[in-house]
Amino acid sequence: MHIELEPSVQKLEKERDEKKLIFENFKNSQSLRDVIGKENINDSMNMNQNELQDHMMKEILQDSEEREYQKILNAYRLTGKTIFPVKENRIGLRFETFYNAKYLEPYYIFLEQNQENEQLSIFRHTLPHFIPLDELEAKYLNKDMNKFANMVDDYLQAFVMRREEVRTLTNNKLNRKPRVNNAYSSIEFTILLKDNNDRVDINLTYENLTSFIPTNAVICLTREGTENKRKRLQKREREFLQSKLTDAFETVFGT
Predict the structure, then answer these.
(1) Which residues pair with 232 in a beta bridge?
(2) Whole-prediction pTM value?
(3) Phi then psi for 171, rounded to 5 degrees?
(4) Which stretch of DSSP H or E encloses residue 110?
(5) Is-contact 70 84, C-beta < 8 A?
(6) Closest CA to 24 of 90, 68, 94
(7) Alpha-carbon torsion 57, 62, 68, 71, what sign?
(8) What is the pLDDT of residues 82-114, one digit of tens each?
(9) CATH topology for the 5-126 domain
(10) Which keywords does this chain's UniProt record carry (predicted)?
């Protein structure tokens, strides 16, 4: 049986956009706890990212009168992005991340509106440092909110995909731990072939941080006993430039 998913998602997104208009009245009728007030900021300085996010959400959902937020969150989680009121001139954006149809960690951006010119600015966030948030804020935030949110989401989903692909490969396939940077935009790992102890070195670079497909791949074979003779496997490199990491690995090396 074929199920049309696209209209359902479009409907959810339409409802989400309509909810943005309703939230202003929602803020006036239900006062959410100030999760990003000065006391919370000072208390949270020594928290790591996951602890900070947990702290924020516990504060938001603590009072029974605020449980309506959880209903809203559940309704819009499928779209990957949720907007919710915080207090007065502040709102929050929540970004879900996914891998293999499972929810992973959420990320948050808190926006503040200048009451004089009604311009939005980023008050606080929990995004990884390598995402160019200042650039996205300047380019999109006060011109196209949906574009801003979608661009942030693209960076987050691609990062999580790269990271989880490396973790999956490490846990299931690799005999040596890979070398990666914080953004997982540079990935290096070595394969020792079981049949003959030949070594294959793989170096992947992701110049586009909104993608989980590398822009550059270098694969070199070093045969046992010939350390100074490396052969580049350009045909194999193409596999990694066309597929996600685990699929390319399976194609090139099998099980």
Answers:
(1) 220
(2) 0.70
(3) -70, -30
(4) strand 107-113
(5) no
(6) 90
(7) positive
(8) 888 887 788 889 999 999 888 899 999 999 988
(9) Copper Amine Oxidase; Chain A, domain 1 (3.30.457)
(10) Centromere, Chromosome, Nucleus
